[in-house]
Every structure is written in C-alpha cells, then in structure tokens.
Specification:
Blueprint: H1 9-29, H2 35-42, H3 46-52, H4 56-64, H5 66-80, H6 84-101, H7 103-111, H8 120-134, H9 144-160, H10 168-180, H11 195-205
Helix pairs in contact: 1-2, 1-4, 5-6, 5-8, 6-7, 6-8, 6-9, 6-10, 7-9, 9-10
Length: 208
C-alpha cells in the first residue's frame, strides 16, 4: 500500500486489534512471545498480522510508541518539581515502575540502544540530570551514559525477580540512589563510557 493512503475500515480495525493484543501479550510474556499467539488474541490470521506488520520490530514499535510521550511527560514533571534531587529520583523511579508493570516494555527498555541523535525525551533527561547536578545533589561526575546502565540494571533486577519479589527493584534502586548522592561521592576510577561504547556494550550483551 502506498505511503499516506488510508487503510480500509476493516484493515484499520484489524490493525487496531493487533496492536491492542500485542500490548496485552507483550506485557504478560515479554517481547519474544510467538507472534501467532498475538494473532490468536486479536482474532485474526497470522497472515493478516504479517500483512500489517511485516517484521516483529514494526509491531513492537506500534505497541509501545506512546511510551516516548509518557517519558517526556515524566521528565517535564521532574523539571517542575521544586527539589531537583526529588525530581531526578522520582523520574527514575517512575520509569522503573512502568517497566515493572509491563514485561514487554521492560524487555524493550533493556534492549533498546541509546539514541544517537538527541530527541525531545533525551534532551529532557539531560536537563533533569544537569539540574540535579547544578543543585549540588547529584554527583558532579554522573553522565547521561551512566544513566543507561542505572536503568539497565533495574530492568535486569525486575526481570530476575519477576514472580519472586515484584517490588525487589525498589530496594536496589534506593541503594543506587544513595551511591549517586553528591555527599557520598568519591573519585571514580575510570571515565564514563562514550555514547558509542554504550551502544556497543548493550548490543553485545543482547547478542550473547
């Protein structure tokens, strides 16, 4: 179908059913679930699914596109919080809550590589970090690339404790926050990873 041409009503309904089913199944079972299970949940054939979404990545994008807007909203609220440290910690905790509530989104967040070109969400995250550092609350040597591994670590904790202690990630995040306080900071032994090194590291992790 040519780009920009609207779908027929029945095709649009099928697409909407597939996206809704994908959100439910991904949330329950993660991103690696068989696609025919999503098709069954949506009440359509697997051929219809592939017609609408030729690659798994296309369906994942459609199911989670609104998360970008959610992260932007959370970052905006963090910047509006009077206390810069509270804004920073609330932002990270709320993102972690989103991941803990949705296995599919947690999978996506752990696997997704950092943006090479800054988008609105990344720019706001930089602002949240810089504001907390400027207030003297967040350690001055913390960089946005460090944030990638803070959130990745929490994603892995959420995954590892799923069905054992669903709130265990909150304890581990609190420990991380204590280590990020400027008042507790000691000199770090090595410099932060570059953006390219973060991409290579996470890419290698999910290929192993």
């Amino acid at each position: 179908m040519a780009e920009g041409v609207p779908l027929r009503k029945d095709a649009q309904r099928n697409r909407e059913k597939l996206v809704a089913a994908a959100r439910e199944v991904f949330a329950e079972k993660g991103l690696d679930v068989a696609l025919d299970e999503i098709a069954r949940r949506a009440g359509v054939s697997i051929g219809t699914l592939y017609n609408r979404f030729p690659a798994r990545a296309d369906l994942v994008h459609a199911a989670f596109y609104d998360r970008v807007e959610t992260v932007v909203t959370l970052a905006e609220h963090a910047l509006e919080t009077e206390d810069a440290w509270a804004g920073f910690t609330q932002f990270v905790e709320q993102i972690s809550r989103l991941r803990a509530a949705d296995r599919g989104y947690n999978d996506l967040a752990a696997r997704r590589l950092p943006q090479v070109t800054p988008d609105q969400g990344q720019e706001l995250m930089i602002a949240v970090v810089d504001r907390a550092k400027a207030a003297g609350a967040l350690r001055a040597d913390f960089e946005l690339t460090d944030m990638a591994f803070v959130t990745w670590a929490i994603s892995r904790t959420i995954e590892a404790t799923d069905g054992v202690r669903d709130d265990a990630w909150r304890r581990h995040l609190a420990l991380i926050f204590d280590g990020l306080r400027a008042s507790a900071a000691t000199p770090l032994p090595v410099p932060p990873l570059t953006s390219d090194e973060v991409v290579r590291a996470l890419d290698a992790c999910w290929k192993c």
